[in-house]
Amino acid sequence: MSDEQRRHVHAMWAGVAEEWTKRADFLDQRAAAVTKALLDGAAIGARDRVLVLADGPGGLALAAARLAADVVSSDVVPSYLDTVNARARVAGLTNVTAKVLDLEDVAEPDASFDAVVIRDGLMFAVDPAAALVEIRRVLRDGGRLAAAVWGAKADNPWLAIVMDAVSSQVGREVPPPGMPGPFALADETRLGRLAREAGFCAVHVDHVAVRFHAPSFDEWWSHTSALAGPIAKVVASLCEDAKAALLDQLRTASSPYETSDGLDIPGLSLVLTARR
Fold first, then answer.
1. Structurally, how many domains does the chain consist of?
2. ∠ at Cα 198 (197, 202), nearest 5°?
């Protein structure tokens, strides 16, 4: 893919960085099971130096820093540096360094980390194969990788119903074909193959349930519309009539997941683990 497409992806995430920062605690709470699976899968220990890629406001790095000797939190969006540093100070963590790094071109020396962890970022790489090669390069011999990506669209109705409704309103597929998206690595066979082709061994893929519970439709929609990078800008650009029609469609689509205390919508993450 072209540099233009890569710039588009980076700009997309920069465009939602403010909302991700505002909702950082919610993101960490919702991803708690995936975070545990990643840290366990990468076998993070007290002497480890850990690189966290596509870390946004730094929740995964903060969790890793409670276990490891030294943690680098990185993202392509520069504004996250201040966010991560501030959150680390509040948490009393002095072993976190924030950097701007691209997971497809990791500006770090060869064999400089014991583990690399990524939460919901690898599927947005323009070239995930190149990203995996880069990740292997910065790992020491025997170093561990743990990466979480979303499973199949059918297993993630919390987002699938939004993508379908938005696509219906704008008359085109969102995100467009050929661009990275949340389900780009949902085929676990392909995911494992990409890791092996990059030179990793002991490749394994686990399933982790990630339910989206919200006390109301409005709260679910508030979080989802603000945080969903590939569709947030599209939703914001809709005229008022189209937004109203979209909400009507989403209320109908989400109704099977209504419970006595709000919405409870299934989700599924795939957690890839591997060794250099």
1. 1
2. 80
Length of the chain: 276
What is this structure's pTM? Answer: 0.93
CATH number for the domain that contains residue 112: 3.40.50.150
Q: CA 15 to CA 9: how far, in whole Å?
A: 10
E strands present in the chain: 49-53, 70-75, 96-100, 113-119, 139-150, 201-209, 212-214, 258-259, 262-265, 268-275
220 in any annotated domain: no
In a domain, 73, yes or no: yes
User: Which residues, other chains included, contact 20 with Cβ-Cβ below 8 Å and sequence gap of 6+?
Assistant: 27, 56, 57, 227
Per-residue pLDDT of 188-217, as tens digits, reads 999 999 999 999 999 999 999 999 999 999
Q: Which domain holds residue 144?
A: 3-153+180-213+266-275
Rounded Cα gap, residues 107 and 103, in angstroms: 9
Helices 217-227 and 229-237: angle between axes, nearest 10 degrees = 110
Q: How far is CA 190 from CA 121, 123, 151, 203, in A?
A: 16, 12, 12, 12
Residue 12, CA atoms < 13 Å, CB-side half-sphere: 21
